[in-house]
Design brief:
Jelly Rolls, 11-stranded mixed beta sheet, 3 helices, 32% strand, procollagen-proline 4-dioxygenase activity, L-ascorbic acid binding, Fe2OG dioxygenase domain-containing protein, metal-binding
Length: 270
């Protein structure tokens, strides 16, 4: 079946870090208490190695602080009628290129150690992880809002190092900031392993406050949807895992520190 899209450009789009017009970056809340609050352990879904979760990535108190803050951002409602070939998505969203915050999520939460220091999962990511996509996205799904079946693209990025560092994204990261504990009913992320929407084959991931959902994207992305929210609000923070792209260059130096410039990756968003 044709892969429904939700944003352009298409898969494999290359973005180069170049100076852009200055923007005011969000003053993201500090990580209090210091993270991680528990040992972070990626748990693979029993049905597929293309889905994993990390429980208690954010404690509930920090999730509350972030929801309070995110409500102050200038969220925009997505168009009601998608372009041809794009999936129907009804939500409110905000996105910003913020390399410093992406680096905080990678370096100051325990995520880097959880994904690179665990022998059980370190070979899943498609290469050597070098941080997170600075294209940070915020999603709010209110009652009646949803994201129809779609796939997430992988994106080729080029970091502004000397020499330039080719990287690409391989996994989507979705941090659930609300769940039924905060009154959100519905909104599950549901995967269909055989590229068809059959209830008998669905893999449903329920919302758990503070849980980080990781799923493989690009050519190996599973067809998936964000189910309609029946009541309350579903808040999600999204980024993507970046790996060193050896196929696009040799003698590449690994970049672990944020740069002063940002790069925007228009992935198919959830």
């Amino acid at each position: 079946m044709p892969k429904p899209k939700s944003a352009k450009p298409s898969k494999g789009h290359t973005t180069t870090s170049t100076p852009t017009k200055a923007v005011t970056l969000p003053d993201w809340p500090q990580f209090k208490p210091p993270l991680p609050v528990v040992e972070l352990t990626p748990e693979l879904h029993p049905a597929t190695s293309r889905i994993a979760t990390i429980a208690s990535f954010f404690p509930k108190s920090l999730c509350r602080d972030y929801v309070t803050f995110l409500k102050t951002l200038p969220l925009q409602t997505t168009p009601g009628k998608p372009k041809r070939g794009e999936a129907v998505r009804v939500n409110d969203r905000f996105q910003v290129d913020d390399a410093v915050f992406a680096n905080r999520l990678w370096e100051s939460t325990g995520l880097k150690e959880a994904l690179t220091g665990n022998e059980d999962v370190q070979n899943l990511w498609g290469g050597e992880p070098v941080g997170l996509n600075p294209n940070i996205r915020v999603y709010r799904y209110s009652k009646g809002q949803y994201f129809d079946c779609h796939y997430d693209d992988s994106n080729n990025l080029t970091l502004a190092t000397e020499p330039p560092t080719p990287v690409r994204t391989t996994w989507t990261l979705l941090l659930y900031l609300t769940s039924s504990a905060e009154g959100c009913v519905g909104g599950e992320t549901v995967f269909y392993p055989n590229d068809r929407k059959l209830p008998s084959e669905e893999i449903a991931v329920s919302l758990e406050t503070g849980t980080l959902l990781l799923h493989k994207h690009g050519d190996d992305c599973l067809l998936h949807e964000g189910r309609e929210v029946k009541s309350g609000e579903k808040w999600v923070l999204r980024t993507d895992l970046r790996i060193l792209d050896q196929s696009r260059g040799e003698g590449i130096s690994i970049l672990c520190e944020p740069t002063n410039t940002t790069q925007r990756s228009k992935t198919k968003v959830h």
